[in-house]
């Protein structure tokens, strides 16, 4: 009996280690990519000068439409493949996993071509009355050709809980995209003094350059691992036979809900894009260039920064899917409950302090990236967006959880309810709160979705336990303490930095942000390690950190 209990404990520990390793790789790749995707804004905005907010509004409008088409072209196939590969790998049927990947390649290549053509030739129908959007959309259609295949290959690796190729290719994709963006923006705006819309078009075409680099990285990794995969296939059970038509049916049935749920945040952003301008024209007398600037502030500026924290949740969500699928395949209800608890705690441990921390430093952080234009409004929008980002990130995680236990249809149903709530709230919220209106409506929509999904998961698997709630309470308290400390540091930092330099300059603001991050990060780490809450999240690594920091 004791030996059996030890085996169960070891199995749980191995599963948790898999989750932590996967989360570490995906989080690192995602965070580095997001940080790189935010830092480029500083030189990009400087080179565009007075045209920056107009350029950013155009960039965001094109990218939102592109994101929707990209999700459709990917068709949820990578996540579906990751889930199904994990399922068959758990049954020691690695041959079927490879066949799934090959069949998926045919599907992804086909959907990529169809969606790229639709995006290119359908651009005039999607411009929302702004002809400048048309060349931007067309420049993005080229990336749609490549990204589905690249994403599918990432999904295949993730099905083996092999997250390193995905993380490294993701970083390479972002690196080459940013390099191309900055080089072309500098050349067009500063060297030849060209048109700002042309510079934006080249900045969006950079998505194709980045995706090509990411695909090459994945190809190199696949060649390196080919012998290992061949060995697994040779030693498979080979007891299950699945015909080609069934494989296609299986992929598509899994993929359709992934499209809707994967596009969740993008769908909300498109609702904003196609309603904000019309409602604001009715309720205000602002000219179009001012509306573009206001739209850029909440849909572009704030969104780019909060996506850094949301990417933490996205990275964890991708990790949860194959692990939950494995427990679901084995009909291990206790294992599912345990993984759900793990996912919620890991999400909360990172996301809540990160979001509250960004709220605390919203003023100087906004100045670092975007300068002093519309500073007061931009900082307030960023602060509010940071709080709302917790709901965005939570949706990403729990939607992935529902997919991992094959409850896609139910998750889609709940998302539709949330979307209806968003649509109903959208117009009155914009009329009452202006620029904050779309964010408030999105918060209402995601509160509905998240509440329904969490209630459903708890009813089925009873994942909420005293231990879990206790840890969540500690995390919330520590996050609030960190927020207050970071906020106090910002006020003190502004005073001290202002003595030696202008605290409202980019350099002065950066120093204040750095101080707040260091102090706040240390306080949160100390409290988490001292209370042993960190042990549950990072395991034995917490002992090493306690020794380094001399915490008993």
TrEMBL record:
Compartments where located: Cell membrane
Domain of life: Bacteria
PANTHER family: LIPID II FLIPPASE MURJ, PST FAMILY PREDICTED COLANIC ACID TRANSPORTER
InterPro entries given in the database record: PG_synth_SpoVB (IPR024923), Poly_Biosynth_Transport (IPR050833), Polysacc_synth (IPR002797)
Lineage: Bacteria, Bacillati, Bacillota, Bacilli, Lactobacillales
Regions annotated as coiled coil: none
Entry keyword Membrane: yes
Pfam families noted in UniProt: Polysacc_synt
The protein, known as: Polysaccharide biosynthesis protein
Transmembrane stretches, start-end: 31-53, 65-82, 103-121, 133-153, 174-193, 205-223, 251-271, 305-328, 340-361, 381-402, 414-433, 439-457, 469-492, 504-527
Protein's UniProt keywords contain Kinase: no
Keywords tagged on the record: Cell membrane, Membrane, Transmembrane, Transmembrane helix
CDD domains linked to this entry: MATE_SpoVB_like
Membrane topology: Multi-pass membrane protein
């Amino acid at each position: 009996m004791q030996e059996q209990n030890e085996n169960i404990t070891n199995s749980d520990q191995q599963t948790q280690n898999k989750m932590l390793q996967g989360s570490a790789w995906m989080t690192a790749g995602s965070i580095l990519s997001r940080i790189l995707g935010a830092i480029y804004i500083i030189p990009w905005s400087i080179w565009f000068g007075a045209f920056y907010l107009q350029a950013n509004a155009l960039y965001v409008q094109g990218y939102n439409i592109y994101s929707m088409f990209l999700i459709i072209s990917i068709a949820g196939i990578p996540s579906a493949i990751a889930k199904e590969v994990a399922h068959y790998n758990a049954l020691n049927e690695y041959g079927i996993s490879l066949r799934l990947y090959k069949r998926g390649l045919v599907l992804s290549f086909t959907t990529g071509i169809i969606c790229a053509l639709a995006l290119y030739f359908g651009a005039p129908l999607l411009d929302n009355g702004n002809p400048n959007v048309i060349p931007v959309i067309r420049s993005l259609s080229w990336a749609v050709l490549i990204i589905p295949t690249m994403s599918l290959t990432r999904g295949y690796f993730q099905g083996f809980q092999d997250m390193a190729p995905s993380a490294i290719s993701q970083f390479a994709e972002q690196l080459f995209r940013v390099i191309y963006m900055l080089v072309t923006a500098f050349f067009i705006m500063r060297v030849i003094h060209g048109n700002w819309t042309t510079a934006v078009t080249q900045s969006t075409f950079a998505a194709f350059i980045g995706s090509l680099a990411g695909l090459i990285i994945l190809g190199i990794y696949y060649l390196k691992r080919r012998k290992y995969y061949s060995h697994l296939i040779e030693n498979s059970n080979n007891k299950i036979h699945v015909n080609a038509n069934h494989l296609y049916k299986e992929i598509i049935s899994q993929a359709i809900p992934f499209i809707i749920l994967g596009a969740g945040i993008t769908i909300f952003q498109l609702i904003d894009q196609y309603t904000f301008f019309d409602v604001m024209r009715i309720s205000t007398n602002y000219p179009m260039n001012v509306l573009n600037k206001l739209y850029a502030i909440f849909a572009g500026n704030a969104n780019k920064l909060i996506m850094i924290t949301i990417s933490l949740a996205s990275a964890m969500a991708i990790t949860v899917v194959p692990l939950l699928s494995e427990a679901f395949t084995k009909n291990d209800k206790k294992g599912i409950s345990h993984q759900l608890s793990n996912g919620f705690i890991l999400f909360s441990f990172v996301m809540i302090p990160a979001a509250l921390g960004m709220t605390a430093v919203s003023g100087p952080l906004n100045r670092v990236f975007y300068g002093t234009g519309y500073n007061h409004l931009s900082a307030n929008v960023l602060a509010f967006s940071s709080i709302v980002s917790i709901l965005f990130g939570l949706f990403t995680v729990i939607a992935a959880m529902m997919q991992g236990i094959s409850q896609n249809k139910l998750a889609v149903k709940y998302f539709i309810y949330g979307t209806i709530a968003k649509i109903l709230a959208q117009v009155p919220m914009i009329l009452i709160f202006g620029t904050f209106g779309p964010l408030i409506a999105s918060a209402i929509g995601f509160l509905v979705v998240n509440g329904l999904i969490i209630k459903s998961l708890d009813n089925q698997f009873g994942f909420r336990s005293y231990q879990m709630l206790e840890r969540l309470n500690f995390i919330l308290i520590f996050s609030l303490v960190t927020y207050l400390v970071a906020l106090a540091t910002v006020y003190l930092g502004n005073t001290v930095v202002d003595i030696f330099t202008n605290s409202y300059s980019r350099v002065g603001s950066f120093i204040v942000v750095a101080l707040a991050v260091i102090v706040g990060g240390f306080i949160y780490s100390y409290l988490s390690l001292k209370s042993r809450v960190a042990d549950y999240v990072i395991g034995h690594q917490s002992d090493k950190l306690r020794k380094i920091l001399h915490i008993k």
